[in-house]
Amino acid sequence: MMEKFKSVAKKIIENSKADHTEVFFYRVKEDNTRFGESRITQNMAKDLTYLTLKLHLGKKTGAVQVTLSEDLKIDELLSRAMDIAKSSVEDPEYVPPVEKQDIPIVSRAFKETEELSPKKKAEVLKEIFEDAKRNNLKVAGLFTNGLYQYGVFNSNGLEAYYETTMASFSNTVQTETSSGYARDQHEDVRNLAPQEIYNVAKEKAIMGQNPRDLEPGQYDVVLEPLAVADFLVFMLWTMDARGADEGITYFTGKLGQKIFDERVNMYSDPMSPLNPSIPFDGEGLLLKRVDWIRNGVLENLYYDRYWAMKQNKKPTGRPFAMIFEDGQKSVNELVKQVEKGLLVTRFWYIRYVDRKSITITGMTRDGLFYIENGEIKYPVKNLRFNESPARVLSNLIDIGKGRRVVGEEASFAMYMPSLLVKGFNFTSKTEF
């Protein structure tokens, strides 16, 4: 597909009369098997390639997106984009396209993942459904496999290409009074274990039956990696240098300062085996390892190309492939350290309360358990929290073993540990 992308982009760029031309490709070849009530409810398949063309006239830009097909009319595409560019207003923050760079061509595509059939997935699910029925459980979720290809080309000579496959399995297991959730994903489907993922959700659902009321307040908590990912992503979205320079984020004036527990180390690296990802951003900028937080010290904030140019800095790209350096303790070992507290499976419905302090609110979901004297005593009904990642990362008791997760709040994978946190603030309770 690299050669096809390159050939189409070359024709477009050669025929363009704009000052600068950019061509972006995104192919998604994906199969989804959706299931609910312990039965398959839907099989879906798509294979589409999107082409986005951007033409720049001075500081004016015209953009057009189409589905790539064999009868692509390049002249019409260029004409439409040119008309839009001519009628657009100038962008005061315009930055010319990325210059030519040596970007490695990376493929993390596995034939076994791409060719996983609905029939094979149905065979796997059949065993799960039978077990659920034997245990009076209901299971619902999504079993996905796909091939994803990206290309960025421009009139400066830039050529960037990346491809990957991904197989993911997510499921919610329900009893009459509880639910459990688990998810995992791998580039190579041979590393994916749907039965084990189901068993994790099943155990949580069974443990969570007949939850008790618990008064809100501050509790020591063990946060599992899924909970950590959805919680911390709201901090990551505010780690931009521009926001800090303009005084509107928590990180204003804090660069180079120790702001978290010294055990907090966070970096992004698209080439890391812990969390491999695309090696360039949406504009084709090469992404390298960046240490964002080192020993609790804020080392870097992310710069887009405009703000980097304005501040005479190098652009960093956004920290999508985030890695939070972990410890060695399991969730159970962290639980054993808790005198009185809670085990949190994951959060949902998270929203900002105050972006400046990164205060957010949300609710627990799919498994909340009361801990006493190092043991899980009983399930409790879900609680709402008002809390800040900044406060949590300053109140760490311990850091457990991590894993690669994709939460509900962001579509990208992060490598997150489990955390033992002192005095997590819960503000209200629910009836479920």
Automatic annotation (TrEMBL):
SUPFAM superfamilies cross-referenced by the UniProt entry: Putative modulator of DNA gyrase, PmbA/TldD (SSF111283)
MF GO annotations: metallopeptidase activity
Pfam name, any one: PmbA_TldD_3rd
Domain (Metalloprotease TldD/E C-terminal): residue spans on this chain: 216-427
Highest taxon in the source lineage: Bacteria
Residue ranges of every copy of the Metalloprotease TldD/E central domain listed in the record: 113-206
GO biological process annotation, one example: proteolysis
Name of the protein in question: TldD/PmbA family protein
